[in-house]
Amino acid sequence: MKKIAVLGAGSWGTALAMVLADNGHEVRLWGHKEAQIKEINEFHTNIKYLQNIKLSNMIIGYTSMKEAVNQVDAVVLAVPTKAMREVCQQVREYLSTPTLFVHVSKGIEPDTHLRVSELIEEELPESIREAVVVLSGPSHAEEVSLRQPTTVTAASLNAEAAEKVQDLFINQHFRVYTNTDVVGVEIGGSLKNIIALAAGITDGLGYGDNAKAALITRGLAEIARLGSCLGANPLTFLGLTGMGDLIVTCTSVHSRNWRAGNMLGKGMKLEEVLENMGMVVEGVRTTKAAYQLSKKLQVKMPLTSALYHVLFDDVNPKDAVDELMNRSKTTELDDLSKLLGERIR
Ligand SMILES: NC(=O)C1=CN([C@@H]2O[C@H](COP(=O)(O)OP(=O)(O)OC[C@H]3O[C@@H](n4cnc5c(N)ncnc54)[C@H](O)[C@@H]3O)[C@@H](O)[C@H]2O)C=CC1
Ligand SMILES: O=C(CO)COP(=O)(O)O
């Protein structure tokens, strides 16, 4: 049995705390809201994020970071990307020995264009980092908390650390693979949220399955184009954290990104949509970051670019779709086939 701190008591932190508790670990679920932590400890529920779920007694809620991370074997960082630096700054106050860090957040920081593992490495000194591992894949918290079959990937350049994380989380309902392609895993997990927002928009506009399939496949092409340019293995994008997560996020009502897009497609304004959600919609900031990156690196990302203009320049969603459909004709297998071809040879 290990002692594990899960930092972030939202949907995903809570669902992962349940997986770890099922595996017999002592789990400390840290959150910054007193009332919510009180609810977790007194009633063993976290109603705002996971309805009709009873938490195990092995999960203890904490608001004190000092107590939550005291002598733990691993720290799971499960806050939205926007809060990651602030939470790391709190953690580093209280750790003095090398600790295994697992992050589960799907985003890219606008302006710096850093992936989450990179910004964690910026905030946490090497002396307290045994390794940073990303855990990602097609995994809605709502289904994980019901112990429905789920598969994810633990990725790190340190293969031994990735395997340690695999061992912490794997069980009969939650199957964990390993990968060493951190760039591919983080880029796939972050950029699928852009495409999920777009899929919600086309559904909101009343378009059908053809549009959805087009978004998923052409979305994957532009994710792989940018990711490969950043050093990812293009084959990772065909796996769980690429195509797998694109499918689950673009086709599920559980997805907050899809739901936010759906409201936009029905005519609501972005501020109104975000207020309505009450939970993180990572794709909004990531669209800004990916759009900036595509300009900087001169990578063609028409879907990301169209969504950027809908979100930040008030372009009408239907006009954005019309514009995408009316671009000049092109071939299907462009630079991507070259990238894949080179890898396969
Ligand atoms: N919900 C899901 O099914 C999955 C979510 N993820 C990722 O996990 C990350 C977290 O998402 P969710 O838990 O779903 O979001 P959520 O919106 O359900 O919960 C976020 C939690 O973070 C807390 N928080 C926000 N700012 C904070 C701060 N400065 N300090 C401390 N706590 C803070 C909030 O109070 C809330 O409890 C995101 O990057 C998301 O993309 C990944 C896989 C699945
Ligand atoms: O990443 C997820 C599932 O794999 C959850 O997606 P949302 O953040 O859109 O709910």
TrEMBL record:
Location of the Glycerol-3-phosphate dehydrogenase NAD-dependent N-terminal domain: 3-161
Active site feature: 192
Pathway(s): Membrane lipid metabolism; glycerophospholipid metabolism
Chain positions recorded as sn-glycerol 3-phosphate binding sites: 106, 137, 139, 192, 245, 255-257
UniProt family annotation: Belongs to the NAD-dependent glycerol-3-phosphate dehydrogenase family.
Described function: Catalyzes the reduction of the glycolytic intermediate dihydroxyacetone phosphate (DHAP) to sn-glycerol 3-phosphate (G3P), the key precursor for phospholipid synthesis.
Cross-referenced PANTHER family: GLYCEROL-3-PHOSPHATE DEHYDROGENASE, GLYCEROL-3-PHOSPHATE DEHYDROGENASE [NAD(+)] 2, CHLOROPLASTIC
This protein's name: Glycerol-3-phosphate dehydrogenase [NAD(P)+]
Source organism of the structure: Sutcliffiella rhizosphaerae
